[in-house]
Amino acid sequence: MTVKLNDKFVTPFVAAHELENIRPALSAAYKTLMDRSGAGNDFLGWIDLPVEYDKEEFSRIKIAAEKIKKSCDILVVLGIGGSYLGARAAIEFVKSPLYNSLKKDTPDIYFAGNNISPNALSELLSICEGKDICLNVISKSGTTTEPAVAFRVFRELLVNKYGVDGARDRIFVTTDKCRGTLKKFSDESGYETFVVPDDVGGRFSVLTAVGLLPIAAAGIDIDALMQGAADARKELASDDIENNDAMKYAALRTILYRKGKVTEIMVGYEPYMLMFCEWWKQLFGESEGKDQKGILPDSVNFSTDLHSLGQYIQDGTRNLFETVLNVKDCGCKFIIPDDPSNVDGLNFLSGKELDYVNKTAMLGTLMAHTDGGVPNILLEIDDRSAHSLGYLIYFFELACAVDGYMLGVNPFDQPGVEAYKKNMFALLGKPGYEEAQKELLARMK
Ligand code: PA5
Questions:
Q1: d(Cα 76, Cα 251) in Å, to the nearest integer?
Q2: Cβ of residue 303 lying under 6 Å from some atom of ligand 1
Q3: Is 352 marked active-site?
Q4: 86 CB under 6 A from ligand 1?
Q5: 179 pLDDT band (50/70/90 cuts)?
Q6: How far is residue 411's CA from residue 178's CA, in Å, rounded to a whole number?
Q7: d(CA 288, CA 292)
Q8: Is the CB of residue 184 less than 8 Å from the CB of residue 143?
Q9: What SS3 class is residue 252?
Q10: Which of 127, 263, 443, 444 pairs as cysteine with 320 (C-beta 3.0–4.6 A)?
Q11: Residue having the nearest C-alpha atom to atom 15 of ligand 1
Q12: HSE (CB half, 13 Å, CA atoms) of 81?
């Protein structure tokens, strides 16, 4: 198993009979998912995706990635939410959060269209000056405000720089298969398009062209990524918590939630895990946070945040639990140098590996937080390879879907996301929102 659950630091909080008692609910939820009989069952394409993906498109993704690598210094990826978090998480996890600053033979990759910040857009435009650019626009609906505004800006930039024909070769669009204005516009403009499958929602779409094209452009082995997910699909195909750690994770977090642990903090010990935690937060937050229910997903990066949020976790309100990502093979040997002056008193660490210190900090923290009343689920991951990442992605997707059904919500919709959009469009005066605008303006008086 590429990902193993170590329950040593959670068993003090969950008795054996509690795990026993939750089995029927877990099995029922698992069955609902696999029978495809639950709410949102038209969005279950992710279950078989690791083996049943479109092989022809997969080859086109690799060809497009090679073309991007050869023809630009910067790939700008436009998308928001599920249309960008997975790719960014994968590039940082497998390569580095400092990917753009590394020596490499692949283009820098910047993510835009994931906010409405004029500063962020202006700064990126100035970074792009004098550089060769390619664009990957990712939007299932094709009408999401944030990437759509950024697309206007970057399309104009590319057309001005390369002409209409030149720009056409540099714009890659990932969107709905046939519906939607972006697909129509792309076909009319001659842009190469890739598909967000109808039955895969944004936050479950990292293993489709949504994630795969930018990930491949960063030089990451997407075959290995898919193989990792395929291995997880095979190894995690049961509701047996003894042999399926994704189900055990799902069971434990539901038990903890029912005991009042309403916040889950995903813990990483390497900065390269930060964006992966952001992806995980969307996956669980958007899937479970419904009908005034659900665990709030949060995240920290230790040891950095032990010097900020550590106090709260150790000693604050006792309504939280942690899930710790322990990547066993750090993949890098860094030895702490000796300092004859020993001014910091740390010569007892001279010659030791920095990863040994990092892992020891993790062990000490696991014990301290458990002593402080915080249950800790420990997930041990082999390494930071594309294969392990693919496995981990599928592990969480599966656990998330099963927990959503145990919670009694539809894990595959996101009706709450519309509320802010409705108000924003009304306040901005979008045609068709006149009544709503009047109501909102009256409320502001
Ligand atoms: O998970 C989701 O469904 C969302 O995060 C969407 O991916 C996000 O809102 C972007 O939507 P779209 O791809 O239609 O632009």
A1: 40
A2: no
A3: no
A4: no
A5: confident
A6: 25
A7: 10
A8: no
A9: helix
A10: 263
A11: 139
A12: 19
Average pLDDT of the chain? 97
What is d(CA 280, CA 253) in angstroms, rounded to the nearest whole number? 14
Distances (CA, A) of 410 to 228, 235, 286, 363, 394: 27, 25, 10, 37, 19
Q: Whose CA is nearest to atom 9 of ligand 1?
A: 81
Domains and CATH numbers, the chain: 3-37+226-407 (3.40.50.10490), 49-220 (3.40.50.10490)
Q: Which of 17, 55, 103, 307 is catalytic?
A: 307
Asked if pLDDT for residue 378 goes beyond 90, the answer is: yes
Whole-angstrom distance, CA of residue 237 vs CA of residue 398: 10
Q: What is the pLDDT of residue 180?
A: 83
pLDDT digit string (tens) for 338-363?
Answer: 999 999 999 999 999 999 999 999 99
pLDDT for res 178: 87
Q: Report the alpha-carbon distance of residue 276 to residue 92 in Å, rounded.
A: 8
Tell me the CA–centroid distance for residue 82 and ligand 1, in Å.
5
Considering the candidates 192, 235, 264, 286, report the single residue annotated as catalytic.
Answer: 286
- 94-153 pLDDT, tens digit per residue, is 999 999 999 999 999 999 999 999 999 999 999 999 999 999 999 998 889 999 999 999
Strand, coil or helix: what is 263? strand
Which candidate in 8, 131, 421, 438 is catalytic?
421
Percent of the chain with pLDDT over 90: 97
Judge if the beta carbon of residue 82 lies within 6 A of ligand 1: yes
pLDDT of residue 357: 98
pTM, full prediction: 0.97
pLDDT in tens, 383-417: 999 999 999 999 999 999 999 999 999 999 999 99
Ligand 1 lined by 106 (C-beta under 6 Å): no
CA distance 283 to 396: 8
Instruction: Give distance in angstroms: CA of 24 to centre of ligand 1.
Output: 33
Please tell me if the CB atom of residue 174 comes closer than 6 angstroms to any atom of ligand 1.
no
